[in-house]
Amino acid sequence: MSAGSALMALATDTARGLSAEAARERLRRLGPNAIEARPPTSALAMLARQFTGLPVGMLLGASAVSVLTGDLLDAAVTVAVVGGNASIGFATESGSERIIRSMTVPQTSLVPVVRSGLGTLVRQEDIVPGDILVLKPNVVVAADARLIETEQLIVNEALLTGESEPVEKSAEAVCGPSTPLAERRNLVHKGSFIVSGAGRAVVVATGARTEVGRIDTETRAIETPRTPLERDLDNLGSKLALVSLAACGAFFLTGFIGGRPLIGMLKSAVALAVAAVPEGLPVTATTTLAIGLGELRRKGVIVRRLEAVEGLGSMQVVCFDKTGTLTENRMRLEHFHAGRAARLIGAHETHRHVEMAPVIDRMMEVAVLCSEVVFERQGDRIAPKGSSTEAALAQGAVDHGIDPFALRKRWGLADIAYRSETDRFMRSVHLDRASGRKLIAVKGDPVQVLSMCRLAITDRGKVSRLHADDRRRIQGATDELAGRGLRVLGFAIAEGNDRGRANGALVWLGAAALKDPVAPGVKSLVTRLRGAGIRPIMITGDQAATAHAIAMEIGLNGDRPLRVLESRALERLRPELLAAIARSTDVFARVPPSRKLRIVEALQSSGLIVGMSGDGFNDAPALRAADIAIAVGRDSASAARDVADIIVDGHDLGAIADGVEQGRTILSNIRKAVHYLISTNLSEIIVLVAESLIAGDQLETPMELLWLNLITDILPALGLAFEPPEPDVMSRPPRSSQEPLLAMSDLRHAALESAVMAGGVIGAHAFGLARYGPGPQTRTVTFLSLVTTQLMHALACRHDRFEPLGGRTLFGNGTLNAALVGATALQALAVASPPLRRLLGISAPSLVDLVVAGGTGLAAFAANEAMLAARLRRARDLEEVARA
Fold first, then answer.
1. Is residue 726 pLDDT above 70, yes or no?
2. Given this model, what pLDDT does residue 422 score?
3. What percent of the chain has pLDDT over 90?
4. Type and span of the H or E element at 487
């Protein structure tokens, strides 16, 4: 619509706006101009989440059966273990949620509007369609609105569109219905802010109907995917459930057929179920994640969900928004092309070019005079306030030694002409307060500014005529800078007479190049991610040239050719073709929010675990859909923070790589703990089934098995959670989304280790039967052998790739050492204390019993290490054959 048609459709006019009564009626009918805040995750929901998963469910089921069979102590201990796990998880996640919520402080702002013919301030929430917004510098746009008057209006829409450059708006422009968000020159949108110029606009959408509101609604509808660890633990729990049920069934049937009492066998079967389901698995996984979360929090990384810590380590692709994430979202003066010779001088190297100082002085004077920047004194420094481009130029002038207050005091502003659609430059006229001389200052598009100049400044400030060769050289120099993705502005000046001309000519001073600088730590982050096998991708609303320049600067593509694609090329692609293209593209440019989401989903559809990092409203849908959502900066949009799994509380993106390392270490340590728990618990099952097959033999008591699981499961498994990072943790490729926590070959190897351990314990049991016959003394030998074998096996599980320790220090994990010492001390207490011996159904061991138990543990450890060494040799041989 034209501006006039929009006013008629909304029953309002530019001069009077809405009446107070009409505004109240529309507010009542359409609701407030606010986007409903996402409710925080309730404490009850966070607590309930701690009790999900089959391992926890099976433990609770086993405790219920224990209650029914009268074993209240067994039930109480099992429930206590589950409750401890839930407490750790709840305390950690609720603490993170409180920190994240503290970042969002609701604000109510007053908005300048026209109502009943008068300018007034209205609460942002009370703005309605038909209101006339008064737009001026530094005003945040309160709603989506159609422009009806503009005067060199420049608007920053980075938070919404991802474009770093402010855009020029025009009330005269008419855009088609399919015009991309970033190109709607006749509209301003909620959340944008006015950089310079002025205007009026009629509100066309408020609240959830604004573009920001639509993004928020779209984001809420997207289901957050589960992390790889959540899926893995559930799958592992299902497998353990089947193994447990099969073992319990076989155990119960063999015992019942062998004539053992029904109730006794039921109790033993329940005890076996508890043995088969490692109590230590949930608490170890939760504790390992909580440890990692604490480490990251100390580095300024806040994690909303425990499992998301591990998810960072599993990422295969991470998509970065450019503006405000990879870059600082502020302009900085980088280079000068000074004078007629177009000499390239770094902004921080001007002291090396003394002969060009007069030229650069004049350029910086123009930057101060031909500008709407406001200068403020802040202690000993001068701070410019204004649009990012003008503020960067003004800061460069201050750094160059220009006193802006003295300069503006000398040269008073007489007239100013703003940049327009046809005249892409700003022109200001100044009067010398002492002499009355006139000065004309011009800055803007270097092509247009150069075309107006007949003269050029030379070294040491002299002036000479511009020739065709000079123009070609200067044009080539400015084009080269623009090709690097820099914003280039030309500068000219003239001494004016009463008609505002300087002998009919402007003098070309030179050009200045500015850029949105790369954020600290980005280059090293990209290097670390690439070294870790994670492919970084840039998705930005910016132009392809700008995105290409930033991508090359940070080494996004490594040593490969950089592939850049504009989003318009993706519009008609089928999903499967988009997925194939997305896998090989490094930079997506000119991307609106909806297509960011499509790109993330395309990468996921090709089987990749995708992380997304961003800071704006425009990033929220893609963040929500990503496997791991990372919001960057405390100043990131609330929509981004609300859906993020990870929040980098600051702008040091290197913390993301720290998170990847921490996540991989967590996964590695959970693998070690699961490996340990499965192999040791399976060894208990084998021993119990073997005992049930021996006629007249006495089985281990349920309390023995519960004691085993508490002492030899939880303490060593927690010790493995503190295992230091593997030396090559950041040089391994990320695991495939299809790769389970433990592969079938790993489970088979764990079963072999269990057989080795169980074989040794059964041999010790046979020794006890031969020496003492069935009874408590034999159970003591068996019990001590099981404990010793399992505790020593924890040392063999310090490598998560099923490899022998080799040259690594056997006791290199101090926490595990303490856990083993503690478990051994508790076991010694159980053996030395008559009341505990009676509870467990064992007797005091002899010296021979202790020697047999120790020898069994050492023999099993040595055998398993030898088996691991043989497996490693076979793997290396296969690799050599494959390479050959």
1. yes
2. 72
3. 26
4. strand 487-496
Question: 233: which 2 tokens?
Answer: 């633990």
The model's pTM:
0.70
Q: Which residues contact 838 (CB under 8 A, 6 or more apart)?
A: none
Contact 382, 375 (CB under 8 A): yes
Radius of gyration over every alpha carbon of the chain, rounded to an integer in angstroms: 36
Q: How far apart are CA 674 and CA 241, in angstroms?
A: 15
> Do 742 and 750 meet the contact criterion of CB atoms below 8 Å apart?
yes
Give the up-direction half-sphere exposure of residue 480: CA atoms within 13 A in the CB hemisphere. 13
Cβ proximity of 840 and 830 under 8 Å: yes
% of residues, the chain, pLDDT over 70: 82
Instruction: State the residue for tokens 């008419």.
Output: 174
Are 445 and 424 in contact, with CB atoms under 8 Å apart?
yes
pLDDT tens string 68-105: 766 676 677 667 767 766 776 677 666 656 655 554 54
Give the single-character DSSP code of 209: G
- In angstroms, the CA 802 to CA 869 distance is 9
Q: Which helix (H) or strand (E) holds 708?
A: helix 702-708
Question: Rounded to the nearest 5°, which phi and psi values hold at 463?
Answer: -120, 135
233 contacts 39 by C-beta, under 8 angstroms: no
Which residues, at least 6 apart from 343, have a Cβ–Cβ distance to it below 8 Å?
Answer: 337, 353, 356
Calpha distance 424→450 (Å, rounded): 12
Q: Facing residues of 303 across strands? A: 646
Least reliable range by pLDDT among 44-48, 181-185, 313-317, 451-455: 44-48
360 — alpha (psi -120 to 50), left (phi > 0) or beta?
A: alpha
User: In the 8-state DSSP scheme, what is residue 661?
Assistant: H
Alpha-carbon distance of 501 to 494, in angstroms, equals 7
Q: Is pLDDT of 226 > 50?
A: yes
Residues in the chain: 884
Kindly tell me if the per-residue pLDDT of 708 is higher than 70: yes
Q: Are 210 and 143 in contact (CB under 8 A)?
A: yes
Per the structure block, which two tokens stand in for 883? 């390479």
Q: What is the DSSP string of 406-460?
A: HHHHHEEEEEEE---SS--EEEEEEEETTT--EEEEEEE-HHHHHHTEEEEE-GG
pLDDT score at 270 = 66
Which run of H or E residues covers position 587? strand 587-589
Phi-psi region of 300 (alpha: psi -120 to 50; beta: other; left: phi over 0): left
CA gap 564, 18 in Å, rounded: 48
Find, among 315, 314, 291, the residue nearest to 303 by Cα.
Answer: 291
CB-based contacts of 381, cutoff 8 Å, min separation 6: none
Q: Which residue has the tokens 């870790």?
A: 532
Distance from C-alpha of 255 to C-alpha of 354, rounded to nearest angstrom: 98
Residue 375 neighbours by CB under 8 Å, 6+ apart: 382, 383, 384, 385, 394, 404, 405
**Cα 711 to Cα 719: distance, rounded to the nearest angstrom:** 12
Residues whose CB falls within 8 Å of the CB of residue 205, separated by 6 or more in sequence, listed in order? 129, 143, 144, 211, 213
CA-nearest of 284, 290, 288 to 677 is 284
- Residues 145, 187 contacting (CB under 8 angstroms): yes
Distance CA 19, CA 448 (A): 46
Token pair of 61, please?
């089921």
**Nearest CA-CA partner of 688 in 703, 674, 673, 705:** 705
> Tokens 């997207």, residue?
222
**What integer best gives the mean pLDDT of the chain?**
82
The DSSP output letter for 148 is E
- pLDDT of amino acid 531: 92
CA distances from 340 to 367, 506, 738 (A): 19, 13, 62
pLDDT digits (tens, 9 = 90+) for 121-152: 899 899 999 999 999 877 889 899 999 998 87
